[in-house]
């Protein structure tokens, strides 16, 4: 046995996987894999933590990893997934906040806002390919290792087709969205009297953005105006911040977990010497029960392998239809593997809206004069959508129908819910009218799209398509 690896039967993992090679150094493992294995994407790189925070390294298949997690018990269940630079990965967040610092926020609302914002933006960046799910719980797996002292969550975007070409691209994407939302808040007229002349166009440091946001929060909360091109308000965005023990605002998620060869704790695992495994949580359910009921449950017991597959950040099971975000030479693109084409995102109107570029002082001043877009004001400007809905149900579908009521979404103020009365009972699933059912037409005011939601019990789990409003 080479001096670079542990001798066989000298590590407790050898009693479960006798032939596995365990390396002293990560670089040695990676060098060995790159020269001997052509199926690197199907291997999972693992770090094993032991005494004095030292770690050993190995590569395993999914089945081998599943076996390890099943057979190992604390204190030996201390495994970490290594996120290598050359492997595509899922969007992920690491939320780690002491409870004493979060008395002013509801952590569950913060997690919900974070999921809503990024699922909505990714859906629109991919031309609604991923948008047809009614619940963010269909797309995010939330794992918790929280204790009585600390909120500790891993949020993993489990959408089956969306990936990023590296964890560095994940970080760049997150920072792009944060800068866009921050720029709007600082430029918005509701907050201008709390600020001096501030420009963040040339700033790439999110800590400086926090300093500017703190200037507002020292005086008041953020307003309830909708941030354009998103499904959240400025006040919702405030839920992504908390005040630390020194009185400074910080993001609820850690921006330092996107480095090369980052080691991320695995599902069901505890840190060495600790007693809080990373598990699914009832407070933030990973539903998917609509489509994933058979996948997540086997004979009414939890399918741990399915959860493990979703929890792995850099592992993809034989999917040739991926949409992979990349950022190279200051240019965003989307690789569509199914159609074997590369989409230049900088040519897409929606995506370019999110990019904060260098502007002249005049342009900056113009941005600061953006009028308030309070949700109350938006509710008064729905005549166009009301006219469209009326025309749709009476002239296009030729029914004697009417708009019974209209309500704005609570969690997503960009959505308008039109409850329809009369004879309009069209069902997208059946492609015809029901004999008796209620329908609701949902309008997304930020994308100018609509969907017809049938309220028949048989259609409960059906996800109707989004269509453009003409």
UniProtKB/TrEMBL annotation:
Top-level division of the source organism's lineage: Eukaryota
One of the GO biological process terms: error-prone translesion synthesis
EC number: 2.7.7.102, 2.7.7.7
Alphabetized UniProt keyword annotations: DNA-directed DNA polymerase, Nucleotidyltransferase, Transferase
UniProt GO MF annotations: chromatin binding; DNA-directed DNA polymerase activity
Catalysed transformations (reactions): DNA(n) + a 2'-deoxyribonucleoside 5'-triphosphate = DNA(n+1) + diphosphate; ssDNA + n NTP = ssDNA/pppN(pN)n-1 hybrid + (n-1) diphosphate
Cellular component, GO annotation: mitochondrial matrix; nucleus
Assigned protein family: Belongs to the eukaryotic-type primase small subunit family.
PANTHER family recorded: DNA-DIRECTED PRIMASE / POLYMERASE PROTEIN, DNA-DIRECTED PRIMASE_POLYMERASE PROTEIN
Protein name, as recorded: DNA-directed primase/polymerase protein
Organism the protein comes from: Rotaria socialis
